[in-house]
Each structure stands twice: as C-alpha cells, then as structure tokens.
Design a protein that fits this description.
Helix 1 packs antiparallel against helix 2 and helix 1 crosses helix 3. It is built from five helices and no strands. It is mainly alpha-helical. The protein has one domain.
Length: about 70
C-alpha cells in the first residue's frame, strides 16, 4: 500500500499533507514512510528545510512523522 500511495500522490501532495492547512495527513504519511520502496522514494523529499518547518509547526502527529523521517 505504501509504495502505491507514495507513487500515486507524488512529492507535492505527500509533503503538503504534512505542512499545508491543518497538516492532518501527517499520520498517514508517517505510516507510508514505514513501507518498502516508499522509503527510498521520499527520502529526498524531506530535506533539512522541510523537517525544520515540521518541527516548528503545530502539526498533529508530528513526533511520529519526524521519527519516521529520521529512519529514512
């Protein structure tokens, strides 16, 4: 599921789910990051600037998301 989810939605949507609006997609993205090839694909999407914005933001489930990003 994770691989297809990431490939279908792409970088802009996946990163946007974690940062735009109320960022309520952080949990879903965190779970997707735990799957096979999805890890390799999104590793470059969550660079230092994106991680910093997530850390500074008021995002639901941000700790889970940041933990999964660090494991990429």
């Amino acid at each position: 599921f994770a691989d297809q989810f990431v490939e279908t939605l792409g970088q802009d949507v996946i990163v946007g789910m974690c940062m735009k609006g109320e960022a309520n997609g952080a949990f879903v993205v965190a779970e997707a990051l735990s799957g096979g090839n999805a890890k390799c694909l999104v590793k470059g999407w969550f660079g230092v600037n994106v991680v910093k914005e997530i850390e500074d933001g008021d995002i639901n489930d941000k700790n889970m998301l940041l933990e999964n990003i660090c494991q990429l």
